[in-house]
């Protein structure tokens, strides 16, 4: 009865997206009609994509222990980007040709595409590269549809806790105990369920352990059971575990009906508390069946569960009954750090080490597991350089056997569906602590092709669903600064940056030669001034994104950007001192998103209307803009035109 948890390798949805693009080309017989060479190449490309898909889950896991597999995934992603660019250009040329010729004249359209294929000379090279990379999967002995053993990443929880190790959770403990002692039963549930919700490492299990062993709770419930669910969410397994705990002996029964009957009989008339720790599964039908035997207990019986997902919690209880666990204050985190580093306030080293330790704690942003981990690494170490090394290092550089935070957060990432992994990793382009706008991010995802089309749903609606899911899973958090703004916890941001690898680069000081190369596809920039594209970045010619974030006003030469970077999907000159765009803007046929907001631009070139794929054009607060191009109707894919504040516009075309 077990169902597979969400998950899927990062590249799985990318492979599927390229396959979808390829399928649309193959379905249009006129595109490759008569060009047998192109048909053969497209067929080889399709075969490679189908061959590689089944081994991606195994490769994603093995990359952590095998550097060769990690490099193989990098090479594969690079080849996929190249193939995607090729197919996007091919389908765009075909679509443009269709608009410029007689709809019934397929031969004319075919000639345009054939000419493009022959002139580009890249198709054979791109297909050959992908074939070569895919063939190497056999060298790495990658298995198809491999299941990830999460037990190798973390130790199952138990009900035992040492209360002297816990800081800052007294109020939370009191609130949960109050809910457990409340004799009110909610009519819509077979048994009252209290979900504790929060991001990985925030202390949900620790809080549940504190409550479970509390004197009032022990006296209230004559039967208490602790079950670590984790990925073993099969109701047969969980029910069997509960029965084994009740009987104090192993249970080998497999028949779910027999198990439920046995559990129902055992719980009948009892006042029980069952803790379901670390629940990931959100299938309503599965849990409804599982909960049926619990109806027979006393009405004051309770189930306490911990989960990282609002979606999971909502399966068991209405959102207003979720207990959201907050991050710890800096002072409580400092107490945790002192406890685990064994540095005493009356020691001679304390005065020297305290300022460094405070910075280490601040780096953890209220996440107790991170504080505990870093404190433990410094246990009984009094050398200043040891402390400075921890302060300066990334959490991901620590050995996994010394750092529990890595597998804790990696588990959150692992269970993300593939398409959400790509959307989450894309957010590594934002600087740390950056407050981003939900609607703006969705437009960027849309432009980058990260949203999977669904019938009867707009891409914006799909993007909204993706975003809400990431919020529900604690990857994004509401900012306290304003409505509609969100932030990422620093360790979540580090997680995104880790998985972004070479393909997404965030630049603080433009010109660093180590920040970009031919594999760089997405680049954000968030400090200082920039006038031209430095020579250090000349190799990044396949870039898809240039996204300045909170940049000072800049004078910039557009020509180089537009002539060199032909693969751009997202281009922002927001706030730059641009008076005009060159006609070469019309050559960026991949471009989906163009932001010229807060620029002193006066007019836009007519060539802009050749951007067949353009979805979003932002001209907000372009106070001097007087005219839009006359052939705006040619932008057939334009969904969002933002001209708020462009008060000098004389007329709309």
Number of strands: 15
Percentage beta strand: 5-15%
The helix/strand class is alpha/beta
Spatial arrangement of strands, main beta sheet? 9-10-11-12-13-14-15
User: Low-confidence runs (pLDDT<50, min 5 residues)?
Assistant: 1-5
Main attributes of the structure:
single chain, 653 residues, alpha/beta, Rossmann fold, 4 domains, 7-stranded parallel beta sheet, 5-stranded parallel beta sheet, 15 strands, 9% strand, globular, disordered N terminus
Write the layout of secondary structure elements.
Layout: H1 12-27, H2 36-52, H3 56-62, H4 67-100, H5 106-120, H6 123-135, H7 170-181, E1 192-197, H8 204-212, H9 215-220, E2 223-230, H10 235-247, H11 256-267, E3 272-279, H12 284-291, E4 302-307, H13 310-316, E5 323-324, H14 330-341, H15 350-363, H16 368-377, H17 384-392, H18 405-414, H19 418-426, E6 436-437, H20 438-447, H21 459-472, E7 477-478, E8 485-487, H22 490-500, E9 504-507, E10 522-525, E11 545-548, H23 558-564, E12 570-572, E13 593-595, E14 616-618, E15 640-642
Parallel strand pairs: 1-4, 1-5, 2-3, 3-4, 9-10, 10-11, 11-12, 12-13, 13-14, 14-15
Antiparallel strand pairs: 6-8, 7-8
Helix pairs in contact: 1-2, 1-4, 2-6, 4-5, 4-6, 7-8, 10-11, 14-15, 14-16, 15-17, 20-21
